[in-house]
Structure formats: structure tokens, C-alpha cells
Amino acid sequence: MLPILPKDPPPSRWTGRCGVGEGEQPVVIHIQFNSLAFQIDGATLLLWVVVGIVAGFLASRAMLGHGLGLVGDLVVGIIGAFLGGFVANLLGFRVTVTVLPIVGSIVVAFMGAIILLLLLRLLGLGRGHRAGR
User: Fold this and answer.
1) Cβ-proximal residues to 108 (8 Å cutoff; 6+ apart), any chain
2) In Å, what is the CA distance from 12 to each residue of 8, 9, 15?
3) What is the 3-state secondary structure (H, E, C) of 72-103?
4) DSSP bridge pairs for 37
5) Is 1 helix (H, G, I), strand (E, B) or coil?
């Protein structure tokens, strides 16, 4: 027999914004490019960095056998996250992990980073590329 879940789950202890006390304003970054404008709070930016580093590290290990360094892994992971999100949305693909939602984001970013590294390798822009070959 399955357990009966309450209609309203108990409130989470992770409510509100990360690192913001009562009466304080959150750190928000406003970005505007032509007519496209959006804002990112500090917690979201930190989450992007964590997902980017993990996905970039895993993808560079899987494709190259070694990492690209902290900045390289971060760049590959963040670009891969955008690419993976675009491809997943295009194909109607969705990764959901109910226990730890960040894992779904890392999986999509990892897939996008793999695609990015594969494209760079196909274009001859990999690290081991030498001119004159």
C-alpha cells in the first residue's frame, strides 16, 4: 500500500533568497542587450557557476581524458548548459530529479558540453590542433 501524502507539504526551510536577511536587498545583476533584458540574482549566478564547473569538468574528462582547468571547465559548462537547454527544448527532452533538482540541470549542461566539445573537435579547434598539419 502506498503512503498517503499530505495535500500541503510542510514549508521548506529554504525559503527566500540565498544570503539575504530580513530588510536586506538581494544582489541582482541587470543585463540589457538591445531589446533583450533580464536580471540574475546572486544565488542564480552562483548556481550557474556550480553547474558550469561540474558539467564542464565531467564533459572535458569524458571527451578529452583530462580537465581544461577551472576557467576552461566553467566556460565549456556554461556554454554547454545553454546549448544543452536549447537542444533539449527543441527535442522536447526534459530531465527531472525530484530529490535534487540541480542534478537535472547538470545532466542537460553535461550533454550540451559534450556536443560543444564534439563540435570543436570536428572543426579542428581542439587543444591538440596544430597549424600546418
Assistant:
1) 81, 84, 85, 88, 95
2) 11, 8, 6
3) HHHHHHHHHHHHHHHHHHHHCCCCCCCCCCHH
4) 32
5) coil
Which amino acid, residue 51? V
Q: Provide the whole-model pTM.
A: 0.65
Q: Could you list the pLDDT tens digit for every one of the 133 residues in the chain?
A: 444 544 554 444 444 444 555 666 666 766 666 776 666 777 777 888 888 889 999 999 998 888 888 888 889 999 998 898 888 888 888 888 888 888 888 898 999 999 999 998 888 876 554 444 4
C-beta neighbour count of 88 within 10 angstroms: 17
What's the longest Cα–Cα distance across the chain?
69
Contacts of 57 (CB under 8 A, 6+ apart): 67, 73, 77
Q: Is 29 helix (H, G, I), strand (E, B) or coil?
A: strand
Amino acid at 49: V
Amino acid at 36: L
What ranges make up the beta strands (E) of the chain? 28-33, 36-41
